[in-house]
Design brief:
alpha/beta; 17 helices
Amino acid sequence: MSSKKKKSASAFEQHGLKKTVDLLLEEIRDLYLSDQIPWVVGYSGGKDSTAILQLIWLALEGLEPEELKKPIHVISTDTLVENPVVAAWVTASLETIRIAAADKGLPFMPHRLTPKVTDTFWVNLIGKGYPAPRHMFRWCTERLKINPSNTFITGVVRESGEAILVLGTRKAESTIRAINMERHELKRTRERLSPNSRLPNSLVFTPIEDWSNDDVWIFLMQYRNPWGYDNKNLLTMYQGASPDGECPLVVDTTTPSCGDSRFGCWVCTLVDKDKSMQAMIQNDQEKEWMLPLLEFRNKLDFRDKGERSDRDLRDFRRMGGQVQLFHDDPIPGPYKQSAREEWLRLLLEAQAVIRKSDQPGVRDVELITLAELKEIRRIWVVDKHEFEDSLPRIYEEATGVPFPGEKFDDNLPFGEEEVRILKDVCGGEELHFELIRELLDIQRRYNTLSRRAGLYDDIEKAFKRSFYEGEEDAVSYAREKKDKMRLVHEARGHLATAEAKGRA
């Protein structure tokens, strides 16, 4: 069997490009005028979302001003760890769309969405200690991408009763996507509108669902971008992100399309390599400033690394302090304090190196926001009782400037020097040190309270987390507990069997 990738059929074969587009524009106009349901267009700045937004724009330009009563929200989700080149492109594009729509009297309303600070990548990885995402623990997608857009769409539904979500998804993108789209087609109650399985009272419209990659590029090159962006620049960006540096529009079965380039989070460890960022650096000397990002991303990727596994960077206890076993071996938990501090240092150092670049706009690149840094600091000091408050020191050492956040708390029991002495007193016993540190912090917090409800619960939690002699002792205790539970279940089973026989 041939290993060559089968070329997708063109959606323009039957009627040609112009008539196919004209028919689609008419369909979009009819759907827009058919009701008062507001539209929400998912816009990433990539080729597919640019194509659908351009189609909607061209369709609405064919309507009379009095017909343009229904808002069209253009939403773009910035995860705050997007490829910086793409993020800058999208941000500028949204502003251009806003200005052009206002000038032409079109009802497009752009929105840049971001995750809540408690859901951001760095707050979860560096603050809480979540390990770098992997297929068995893909904690990032929901928090960074899905929640911000769903929150916005839910708000539109709450205000208007319904919403139509317009997406650039296509069946030709993958077999799985085609199957999912075809399954939703069977549930359609209106022409071309599928129910949204995640959000009630919202319908999904996919105007280019049958287009191939090449169809999208042909359309973008033949139809001028109506809000003033040059689609050739978009093609150039995709071309720069292709490993071979080429991006043909009409291809044979041996030539990959530009659509195979994937832009996304620069920290993504769910793919083997960030091929788009590698290609950008390789194809354009002006993008060499991105090397620190690539190096940092590769350090985060511990999948299939054997001895490079991040097991030694992670606590043997889970987030709540319990030891969880899998085949009698402990399941590693969050990153240890030392690892979290090192990730922060490496990230800030990468940012400092990048900002020394002489490329336009690069000096303002922000890999982590001040709001995220403040939340990480709060988690370390308040939630994890790491009252040595090391974040300001790490920030200043990595960047060369003082931390811009305010003084955290004058009532912290110890400073870093006192913590060092406490560690020495504990003789290197990390769990004993953590227990004493947490108990001291609990005492400090409750000392000034007139009502100390919860004190005993917090003390009990502290002992449950750290009363072991070490990892070996904790794992042994967990195995004994597991064996006892198994014996209890077996005894209950035997008892139930005996009772059943007695009744018989």
